[in-house]
Write a structure and sequence with these properties.
This protein is of the alpha+beta class. Among the domains are: 394-555, Histidine kinase-like ATPase, C-terminal domain (Heat Shock Protein 90, 2-Layer Sandwich); 560-690, Rossmann fold (3-Layer(aba) Sandwich). The protein has 16 helices and 22 strands. It has helices at residues 2-79, 91-104, 138-147, 192-200, 234-242, 278-361, 365-393, 404-417, 440-457, 493-496, 516-526, 589-601, 612-620, 641-651, 667-672, 684-690; strands spanning 108-115, 120-123, 151-156, 168-177, 180-189, 208-212, 218-221, 245-251, 257-264, 271-277, 400-403, 423-428, 435-438, 462-473, 477-486, 530-534, 541-548, 581-585, 605-609, 628-632, 656-661, 677-679. The strands form five sheets. Strands 2-1-5-4-3 form a five-stranded antiparallel β-sheet, sandwiched between helices. It has a five-stranded antiparallel β-sheet with strand order 7-6-10-9-8. A five-stranded mixed β-sheet has the order 12-14-15-17-16. The radius of gyration is 50 Å and the shape is elongated. It starts with a helix and ends in a 9-residue tail after the last helix. The modification 4-aspartylphosphate is found at residue 632. Residues 339-551 form the Histidine kinase domain. Keywords: Membrane, Phosphoprotein, Transmembrane, Transmembrane helix.
């Protein structure tokens, strides 16, 4: 035993070493990638914040310049007034005009007119006759007198006549006559409008805008209006001196660190500023550091998880390959089973035709004693072939309205065969029909899967119960509850959580594919319902399929669905009358001749054809065209039985057509088009009824 353990340990080490290397190889680039992405994210987010702040400052500067320029334009127009012509201005009439302008633009606090002697000759704020002081801003006055150009000045005031003691902005234009600047017209503008511009900008929370005039004094600050008129901070002034725009560090009046973007107007010297709290500005850095750390941790966790899952994958790969191989074998077996079932159905068809003929010609009790066991054996063979067909189709059928009660009752013999002799089967079905839209092939397979699981769970024998009832489920409405329960040891809790997962199985390798309960779950979901599983502590397990009920009054079940198709309207064949001409089409000679013999015995004039081409040739002869056609659904050649039926229907509308099939996915389509369908081996009494000859004695 020790050498075996050594070999196992060595093999485990050989597997573990590349996994460790794989983990390390994956960890390094992942960590570097996480750090690089974090750093790039930091730079990008901070760059975006800087660009947004600069954009906000540009927008504020543009709005301020636009606002002040509009007032400067008004003042320039006013300077052209004829009231300033002549040797002395008409101050009385000018006062009336200035009063009207002040009423129209309340932001203009006052209008002042100064002469070349640097004396005020008019001030709209004071009453006429009041002595006026000299010019307050001599530098600005002299600049206008020298250059003759209008300008947006800096802050001034509050001035000798101020009522609130607050500084104002000044706008100056020259009054020029005959090429000479005679006066300077000044508008003193309130700063309230500038504050409105600042507060009207849609800036992120915490960001603070403010304005600085050309002399370096605070012109507007929405967050600190009490500081308007005071000198700006050193960092702001230094930044303005270094360029017309940029980013600089600083502090708020409360001492909080900020990063500020600014834009300065080259003509006026005014500048707009937008401050970002340093905590907000650095937030991307903090987040990025966290992302780097989280990325590294995630890389460790993911790499470890990947290594663990990869190791499990290595261990499970062979089992999964075997499962796929088994599934492929089952698929191949299903195709073979379908072909075998088709051939056996043809044989049983011939046998049942012979039994029907013997019964018609020898209806005595002595012969019946021999015929009845033969018929029962053939019917049992029919059930077996239909079970094979249920496996072979693999869910390719479509959903049909199915009476679950009748369908499960019909499956009971096959369900009993799926269990061993030491397992008792109880089937509990209600009396009333329960109709649901289901794929009957998948329903059959689901029940067989559940019984197979129950059988394997009880190697020492037990009991299985199949029950069907109705209930109302939240989200599904009225449903049929189809339940399969057993008396086995039960299902562990950890298995219950994964029981419906594909390829999950608790059986030994080679004993199960792990697809049985997955198929049950898929079937229930495809029917618009649900599947659930329960296992009480005392043992046993119950699997329920919840299937929504429909309002349908008719149902079809499996291959027998076709038998429920409405019978065509045909003329009844009385015992003394000939029954008309019928064409029998089938590529199997034994099936064709046995069916023809049965119909001929009923009194029909029978014509035979081996394929669709021969059948159409019969109709092309234009003499005594068949009134009825019995054709196989699957035939060799380009035309199927359904194609033939449509061609005959188009050529001779009154022809009664019955389709016969033993193995075809086209049966549901044929039934949908209204053709009656019989499943092989044919119920010959039903065939006689469809052709209008039921109860007719031997010819």
């Amino acid at each position: 035993m020790v050498p075996w353990l050594g070999v196992g340990h060595e093999r485990s080490a050989r597997v573990r070493r590349p996994l460790i290397l794989l983990a390390l190889a994956a960890l390094v680039p992942l960590a570097l990638l996480a750090a690089g992405l974090g750093f790039a994210t930091l730079r990008q987010q901070q760059e975006t914040m800087r660009e947004d702040a600069l954009s906000g400052a540009r927008g504020i500067m543009a709005d301020v310049e636009r606002e002040l320029d509009s007032y400067l334009e008004v003042l320039s127009i006013l300077s052209q007034s004829p009231l300033f012509d002549g040797d002395a201005p008409d101050l009385e009439r000018f006062r009336i005009l200035a009063t009207r302008i002040g009423a129209a633009w309340p932001i203009i606090d006052r209008i002042i007119l100064s002469d070349r002697n640097e004396r005020q000759v008019f001030n709209s704020f004071v009453e006429p006759g009041t002595p006026l002081p000299p010019v307050v801003d001599l530098e600005g006055h002299r600049r206008i007198m020298e250059t003759g150009r209008a300008e947006i000045g800096d802050l001034t005031g509050p001035g000798p006549f101020s009522a609130d003691g607050l500084p104002r902005a000044t706008l100056r234009v020259p009054v020029v006559r005959e090429g000479e600047t005679r006066y300077v017209l000044v508008a003193i503008v309130s700063l309230d409008r500038l504050n409105e511009i600042l507060t009207g900008r849609d800036l992120p929370e915490g960001w603070r805008p403010f304005l600085i005039d050309g002399t370096g004094r605070l012109a507007a600050a929405a967050a600190a209006p009490e500081l308007v008129g005071t000198p700006a901070g050193e960092n702001a002034l230094a930044a303005r001196a270094s360029g017309l725009s940029g980013i600089y560090p600083g502090r708020t009046p409360a001492g909080d660190p900020v990063v500020t973007a600014f834009v300065q107007h080259p003509r006026t010297g005014w500048s707009s500023h937008v401050s970002i709290p340093l905590t907000l500005y650095r937030e991307p850095l903090v987040r990025s550091a966290g992302l780097v750390a989280l990325g590294g941790l995630a890389a460790l966790v993911l790499t470890g998880t990947f290594a663990h899952l990869f190791r499990r994958e290595l261990q499970a790969s062979r089992e999964e390959a075997l499962s796929r191989e088994r599934a492929a074998r089952l698929e191949s077996l299903g195709r073979v089973a379908g072909g075998v079932a088709h051939d056996v159905n043809n044989v049983l068809h011939v046998v049942l035709a012979g039994i029907a003929l013997v019964r018609r010609h020898h209806p005595d009790e002595r012969v019946e004693r021999f015929l009845q066991p033969m018929k029962e054996a053939a019917e049992k063979g029919t059930q077996t072939t239909r079970g094979l067909l249920a496996f072979s189709r693999g869910g390719s059928g479509s959903k049909v309205a199915t009476d679950l009660v009748a369908h499960v009752r019909g499956l009971e013999p096959m369900l009993r065969q799926a269990l061993r002799g030491d397992i008792a089967l109880a089937v509990d079905l209600p009396a009333e029909p329960l109709v649901a839209e289901v794929d009957t092939t998948q329903l059959d397979l689901a029940l067989l899967n559940l019984l197979s699981n129950a059988r394997d769970a009880m190697p020492g024998g037990g009991a299985v119960r199949v029950s069907l009832d109705t209930r109302t489920e939240s989200g599904l409405g009225r449903v049929a509850r189809l339940c399969v329960s057993d008396t086995g040891p039960g299902i562990p809790e950890e298995v219950l959580a994964r029981a419906f997962e594909p390829f999950y199985t608790t059986k030994p390798v080679g004993s199960g594919t792990g697809l049985g309960l997955a198929q049950v779950y898929g079937f229930a979901r495809s029917a618009g319902g649900a599947a659930r599983i329960a296992s009480p502590r005392g043992g046993g397990a119950s699997i329920e399929m919840l299937l929504p009920l429909t309002e349908a009054t008719r149902a079809a079940s499996g291959d027998a669905a076709a038998d429920e198709a409405p019978s065509p309207a045909v003329k009844r064949c009385e015992s003394s009358d000939p029954c008309g001409r019928v064409l029998v089409v089938d590529d199997n000679e034994a099936v064709r001749t046995s069916t023809a013999a049965f119909l001929a015995d009923l009194g029909f004039d029978v014509v035979q054809a081996a394929n669709a081409a021969e059948a159409l040739a019969v109709f092309a002869q234009n003499r005594s065209a068949p009134e009825m056609v019995v054709t196989d659904l699957v035939m060799p050649g380009a035309m199927s039985g359904l194609d033939l039926a449509e061609a005959i229907k188009a050529r001779a509308r009154g022809t009664t057509i019955v389709l016969v099939t033993g193995y075809s996915d086209a049966a549901s389509e044929a039934a949908r088009r209204g053709f009656p369908i019989l499943a092989k081996p044919v119920d010959f009494d039903r065939l006689a009824s469809l052709l209008g000859a039921e109860g007719r004695s031997a010819a």
